[in-house]
Amino acid sequence: MFEKLKNFINNATVVTNGYETVKSKYGEMYVHEPTKKGLERKYDFRRKIIVNREEDKMGKINKMPDVAKMLGKELEEEFGIKERIGNYKLTEKGLVYNSPCGWKLSSVKTLIKLLTGELKIEWIPKDGENVWLVIIGIEKPYEKQFHANFSGDIWTLKRGFVFKSEEEATAKMKELGWL
Predict the structure, then answer these.
(1) Which domain holds residue 118?
(2) How many whole angstroms separate alpha carbon 162 and alpha carbon 119?
(3) 163 vs 165: CA distance, rounded Å
(4) Contacts with 175 (C-beta within 8 Å, 6 or more apart), sequence order
(5) Total structural domains in the chain?
(6) Are residues 112 and 146 in the same domain?
(7) Closest Cα partner for 87 from 72, 68, 100?
(8) How confident is the model over 43-87, as pLDDT tens digits?
(9) Do residue 78 and residue 38 come from a single domain?
(10) Is 10 left (phi over 0), alpha (psi -120 to 50) or beta?
(11) For 14-53, how does the pLDDT look when each residue is reduced to its tens digit (9 = 90+)?
(12) Do 46 and 89 fall within a single domain?
């Protein structure tokens, strides 16, 4: 599954034209390290990765739809990342997160950690969607509408007490010993 990504990272070739241009079959990227014109060498690509790919011999190539498919998501579909605050989504330009200033390009490290399984994707309900909540002191899960702008709903979601179905919520209550 990650063989193409590994090959891309480890086998990129640099062809310079004043600035280094990292070329691979997935696209190219400009690096801000001037070198002698015409020099070719291997580049340790673990420091940087191409997210916004440009045209190569075969025409426009963008692998973000394939990356989204590998992660079980579609482009522009919002999701959460466990142990991280905020919403994320995959776009044509890469992994972006929702900041107070709008959608910003996320760290390449975050994308690589998602691809390698170090970070896990979590479900985020849409605003107005019916969800099941697990709250201490209440005997059974209860259904309510999720409100993305309500801090109480965000708090319970980030702590893992919001579920898609009553069965999932009941299983969590049994796991915690509340039932």
Answers:
(1) 64-122
(2) 19
(3) 6
(4) none
(5) 3
(6) no
(7) 100
(8) 444 444 444 344 444 456 788 888 999 999 999 998 988 878 788
(9) no
(10) alpha
(11) 444 444 455 555 555 544 444 444 444 444 444 444 443 4
(12) no
